[in-house]
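Q: Structure tokens for this one, please.
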Amino acid sequence: MSNIFERYENHTPFILMADIPPNPLDKDAVKQYQDLGLNTFILTEDDVPFTKNGVITEAYQNAIRNLGDMGLDVYIRNMYNDADYFQNPIENKQGSNYGTPYQMPARNITNEFAAFPAVKGFYMADEPYMADLEDRPGFASFDRLQTLVDWKNQYYPKLFWHINHVSCDSYDHWPHYLGYTMEDFLQNYVDRVLRRLTDGGRSLCIDYYPFADEGKIASDYLWNVWTLAKICRRYNLGVSVEKKATPGICIQCHQFVSPIGEGLKRDLSCPEEIAFQVFTGMAFGARLLEYFCYRSIPQIDMNGMLRADTPHTYDFVKEGNRIALPMAKVVSAFDWAGAFLVSGDTHENEEAFAKVKSLELRKDVYSPDILAIHGTYDLVVSSFYQGAIRKYMKGAEQYGYFVLNYTDPTLKHSNQVDIHFKKANQAFIFQDDAWKEVLIPDGRLSLTLAPGRAAFVIPQGQQG
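A: Here is the predicted structure, written as tokens:
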């Protein structure tokens, strides 16, 4: 590859992990997990107990060592979403984790993890509520997270803080009856939790899954990932580099289980469904991907990547990652400015596009190179920039444009895209894991985006 493209690459990896991971002491099982392209391991107590008699067990320590020796970063999982998980003064503390009762032994864990270089962060809770609920006092909430914030600030200020949040469907997690919205919910988390972390990486992540019905992308998917990106960007513009948040989304790689008893819905049928989700995350600045889920739990009809009867699901994820993850080195070299929509000749996402109309960026300010863009099918176009910028995002040293074929991959729509640039006479394009340079003397560029695919376009030069 020509050195000309090096300025447009950053090899800082995304954070890539999967829930319900394999046994951390089984090297073959961990290798299979790594083969998906994942680099981070959520260490749970499913196979190794955390503590005994108040100290970290040898099995748990060996698990950390094994994962580190295999090149994986380790995130310690707060198994019960309990504020006292690390410092619990009560022997056999009784609790309920989303309705599942547990007993937690007494312990006082402080700086023990400092002895393990592989420990890079903490998965502190999953889907906490905005506030304590009187009828469900055992559930995690932003109120209770304050204890964990103080613990991390004292003992591990520079390690990563991760929590996954619900999306717009789970409105019981915030006081919707008082007029609060999901945007209010996420902003409340930013203000009350993320801002209180004194140092270290931190995430803002949600788990909306786009594929429930056959042949369509859920109409709320775009609004969810875009709203998260907006809130995360707004926070990041006001803090120092070491306090910036990493936007993240969850990747659907399970068969959908309805929380209201509607039964099993759509299952994955091709790698492009994974690639589409990864590319969508990238289009909105995500640099953390949480795949749900790895192992299956047959007892509750939770079908993950590993299944006795359908091993192809694992293969779909592996191939989808192979298609999409090479783009990470390019988007990581840029900062996300925002996105706009292009309705195709065949417009299949009318409801979704209408819901996010207020979130679209101003094309004349955030995408100064583009005069017009057209697609045979719907497109999401994101604007990225490099270099110092002035008020209203003008004056970036370089803009780049992420162009996503926003159609359900199972429909197999090949999207013909035409872009008319104002001044460019050439373009650098990253697509299908390769760079290419294209001369466009008239400023017009044509691309073909296969189902579930995207391209990153960097206009160059001026028309003579």
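A few notes: The mean pLDDT is 92. Residues 1 and 434 are 9 Å apart (CA to CA).
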